[in-house]
Structures are given as structure tokens and as C-alpha cells.
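Priority: medium. Attachment 1 of 2:
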């Protein structure tokens, strides 16, 4: 499994991530959503460098031009609800992609004990396609794995790109154990060392869904 950590080469992602972490900026949900979206756009571009291309001939007003174009069917998948603006960033660039959506949530038994539940899946067939599975926060890896298991009931993709804004080292290790090693690439804005007793990433940025859309009951 290949891991690409944007923290290793500071870029605009570093700036957006600093703003998403900053409690003095987090009170602006519009900016938080836009930073998620812009991070998705940059990751979409970087992933595009690793896709397969074929050359087609295009007629211009003056002559014929040989143009490389993506030769893979991309499927963008996200986990509700924090993943929606992040997903939009990818969709802004992969405008011809198919899309898939998964509802994965924590069902608490008690304060620090929960199960991850899947309630909803909408996906095209995935056989032989390129799956980009994006969710801003990769805390334990359990939601990402269960979402992946749900998605592959629609067929096995040729390659899986897992994209997150922040991941814990625990989650990275978990994905390495549970995703197919020979066909998975993980893209992450930063890797934080810890998760706390509530399975939130530390230092992380808090609850991405609440920051993007408001608190839930």
C-alpha cells in the first residue's frame, strides 16, 4: 500500500489545513466547507497524475491536435455528512466521474463505546473502475473499511484511492491491514499521532461534520 502525505511537502493544502484546525477560524462554516472543497480539488489534481491516459485526436479550428485524456472510469465515493464538501472538490475536477454515497455513523452504546453502522448505499457498478473513496477524518479506519466493504458489493475496483484531510497513525495502520495492499493508495493532508478515548484525532480539528453543517441532536 502506498501512502502519500501532503505534510511531507508543504503546499496550499498546509494553509487550508491550518485554517481548518484553528478555533478562531472554525466559527465560519462557509470557510470551513470551502477549505474542505479546495483540499479535495488539490488532491483530485495530484491523483490525476497517477491515472492511465490514452491519446485522442481533436479537431481545432486550425488543425488536428493529439491530446492525452484519462483512460479510466473514475467513481467518486464519500461518507455522509462531513464528506460532502470534500467530495465536491473532487467532483469539480472529475466532472465526468460516476458517484457513490455511503451513510456510516457511530451508534453509541455508552459514552466511549460505539459501533459503526451503515444504513444507506447508492453506487454504480465498480468492476474494474478506479474508486476514489474520500472522507475528511480518518480516525480509527473502521468507518472507511465498512464503507469500502459496502461498496465492493457492487464489484471490485481495479484501484482504490483513499483520501482524507487528517488521519491518525492508528487508522493508517488499520487501512494497511484491511484494504488490498496491491491496489490501494492513501492520500492524506496530515497524519496525527493519537486518538483520544472518544476516538477523535488529536490534535485533529474536532467534528468535521458539525463544523461544516452545525451541531446535531
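Attachment 2 of 2:
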Amino acid at each position: 500500500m502506498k501512502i502519500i502525505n501532503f505534510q511531507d511537502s508543504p503546499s496550499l493544502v498546509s494553509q487550508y489545513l491550518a485554517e481548518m484546525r484553528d478555533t478562531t477560524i472554525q466559527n465560519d462554516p462557509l470557510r470551513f466547507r470551502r477549505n474542505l472543497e479546495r483540499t479535495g480539488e488539490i488532491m483530485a489534481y495530484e491523483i490525476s497524475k497517477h491515472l492511465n491516459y490514452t491519446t485522442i485526436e481533436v479537431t481545432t479550428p486550425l488543425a488536428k491536435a493529439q491530446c492525452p485524456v484519462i483512460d479510466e472510469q473514475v467513481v467518486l465515493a464519500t461518507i455522509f455528512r462531513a464528506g460532502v464538501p470534500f467530495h465536491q472538490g473532487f467532483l469539480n475536477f472529475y466532472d465526468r466521474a460516476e458517484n457513490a454515497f455511503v451513510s456510516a455513523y457511530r451508534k453509541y452504546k455508552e459514552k466511549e463505546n460505539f459501533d459503526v453502522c451503515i444504513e444507506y448505499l447508492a453506487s454504480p457498478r465498480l468492476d474494474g473502475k478506479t474508486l476514489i473513496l474520500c472522507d475528511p477524518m480518518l480516525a480509527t479506519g473502521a468507518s472507511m473499511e465498512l464503507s469500502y466493504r459496502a461498496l465492493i458489493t457492487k464489484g471490485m475496483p481495479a484501484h482504490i484511492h483513499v483520501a482524507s484531510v487528517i488521519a491518525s497513525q492508528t487508522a493508517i495502520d488499520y487501512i494497511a491491514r484491511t484494504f488490498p495492499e496491491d491496489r490501494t493508495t492513501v492520500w492524506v493532508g496530515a497524519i496525527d499521532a493519537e486518538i483520544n478515548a472518544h476516538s477523535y484525532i488529536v490534535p485533529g480539528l474536532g467534528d468535521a461534520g458539525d463544523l461544516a453543517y452545525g451541531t446535531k441532536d
